[in-house]
Specification:
The chain is α/β, with parallel strands linked by helices. It folds into four domains: about 25-155, Rossmann fold (3-Layer(aba) Sandwich), CATH 3.40.50.300; about 160-230, Helicase, Ruva Protein, domain 3 (Orthogonal Bundle); about 240-330, Zinc Finger, Delta Prime, domain 3; about 345-395, no CATH class. The protein has 19 helices and seven strands. Strands 2-3-4-1-5 form a five-stranded parallel sheet, sandwiched between helices. It has a two-stranded parallel ribbon with strand order 6-7. The longest helix has 16 residues, at about 80-95. The termini are far apart.
């Protein structure tokens, strides 16, 4: 009898226990605090930060199964204050029944200030235990007050060994995986699949699932075909990811607006995170345009903020505007090259002492030693004073062309 599988392979193979969970030993390994907290049902509010496909959502589901708490999952993309108010009311009912509530918010960085602030009193009172998952640095994307009340756990890309174990489990599992189909994969194909997924278990499983739909004997060529099918020749976390962002950067640097738009579209149409693209534009604005047009940085930052506000698909034209603007701008890498020279001197000479005349005398002893002695207050000299601002060993050193 033919086996009928329901749902994507990646969802079916999601681990349900800590023992089945692969990778992240620094967080959930034997005797680790979080592992013990889960066993004792004393889970604190937490932020899971890391790349896609590293187990953030999976671990949240495991916590849901292995604790006695009411587990509520929402996506920050499609939920707001109204949903939060309903969750709070449900949590109050659960509390009266002696049951705690764990709220899992996927992509928590997409919740705005008001939404995040709405959580605070309920986390402080113990009504809600928060688990937030994000691919963005929580220091910038999560409110400080919320962050201070949560433990941050950093998830790393899965290593090759963990990816291989996940693939083998999917191939052997007869109940949820591909075991009934008696799939075979040779070593070269296994190596390619575990490498091309670049630490993302979901990518590895998705490629495997497509390959298995074509043939029961999986080889290197089939993995390559499955990879192309899965991501338009653009693996968001693999080598091609870096090749295409490099092509975009170099096209803008070369002032080719059409080529810049093409490489941008390759990323957008393949589902690249718009904030990743916007961050690269912010860097480009200073590295390759810099002092030639100081408005470029304003354009790049505005594009990032706009992408953050509205996301896909509406932000595609915003990124296009910024990319074409950068491509057509006059270019200068003077700032970038000057900083490299400065950094080289810092590494070469170490912690050179600040000249005495530039130091503030905040005590009588400092004044007696000579702190601030001989300093020329620039406004009194019409900003034309002759004064050395460099450490003694770098006296007279200039890094910019027009530095006086």
């Amino acid at each position: 009898m033919e086996t009928i599988y329901k749902g994507p392979l990646a969802d079916r193979m999601r681990p349900e226990t800590i023992e089945e969970f692969m990778g992240q030993d620094e967080i959930i390994g034997e005797k680790k605090l979080l592992r013990e907290a889960i066993k004792m049902d004393r889970v604190p509010s937490m932020i899971f930060w890391g790349p896609p496909g590293t187990g953030k959502t999976t671990l949240a589901f495991i916590i849901a199964k292995q604790t006695k708490s009411e587990f509520v999952r929402v996506s920050a993309v499609s939920s707001g204050l109204k949903d939060l108010r309903e969750i709070i009311e449900r949590a109050k009912v659960s509390q009266r029944l002696g049951k705690k509530t764990i709220l899992f918010i996927d992509e928590i960085h997409r919740w705005n200030k008001t939404q995040q602030d709405g959580l605070l009193p309920h986390i402080e009172s113990g009504l809600i235990t928060l688990i937030g998952a994000t691919t963005e640095n929580p220091s910038f994307e999560v409110r400080g007050a919320l962050l201070s009340r949560s433990r941050v756990f950093v998830f790393k890309q899965l290593d090759k060994d963990s990816i291989e174990k996940i693939i083998k489990r999917a191939l052997k599992d007869k109940k949820k995986g591909l075991g009934e189909m008696k799939m075979k994969i040779n070593k070269k194909a296994m190596d390619l699949l575990s490498n091309i997924s670049n630490g993302d278990a979901r990518i590895a499983i998705n490629i495997l699932e497509y390959a298995a739909s074509v043939s029961s004997n999986i080889d290197v060529e089939l993995i390559k075909e499955a990879t192309q099918k899965a991501a338009l020749m653009y693996d968001k976390n693999g080598e091609e990811h870096y090749n295409i962002i490099s092509a975009l950067h170099k096209s803008m640097r070369g002032s080719d607006a059409s080529a810049s738009l093409y490489w941008l579209a390759r990323m957008i149409e393949s589902g690249e995170d718009p904030l990743f693209i916007a961050r690269r534009l912010v860097r480009f604005a200073s590295e390759d345009i810099g002092l030639a047009n100081s408005r470029a940085l304003e354009q790049a930052v505005a594009a990032y903020q706009a992408c953050h506000f509205i996301g896909y698909p509406e932000c595609n034209v915003i990124l296009s505007q910024a990319v074409v603007y950068m491509a057509k701008c006059k270019k200068s890498n003077e700032l970038y090259m000057a900083y490299l020279k400065v950094a080289d001197d810092v590494r070469r000479y170490g912690n050179l002492p600040v000249p005495l005349h530039l130091r503030n005398a905040v005590s009588k002893l400092m004044d007696e030693v000579g702190y601030g002695k001989g300093y020329k207050y620039s406004p009194e000299f019409g900003y034309k004073e002759k004064q050395e601002y460099m450490p003694e060993k770098l006296k007279g050193r200039k890094y910019l062309k027009d530095d006086k």
